[in-house]
Amino acid sequence: MLLYFSVSEFVTTDTELKALASLKEKERKELLTLLGKKSNTDAEINRTIQLFHDSGAIDYYTKKAREYIKRSESSLHELKDSKARKELKRIVDYVVKRDL
Q1: What whole-number distance in Å separates Cα of residue 51 and Cα of residue 62?
Q2: Which residue segment(s) compose the domain that 71 sits in?
Q3: pTM of the predicted model, to two decimals?
């Protein structure tokens, strides 16, 4: 889904796995080193983000998120008009505007 990754502790997520699988060996080792550190400088955090972009993982999961949003919007139309449906629609709209 949307891209929540930790550069302060090593936690393997789908986004990290996608990035590691797509990067060349040198960049893969660099990303593993950055992800494995207990703390990172601002420059290291920016480099980590850049590696995720370079790998295509950001674009891949952004596209996936858009697909899920479209599916959820379609599913909302199957529900009867209600306060709950309106609230779910509001949440979907928020997610779309927030990051995508």
Answers
A1: 16
A2: 61-99
A3: 0.67
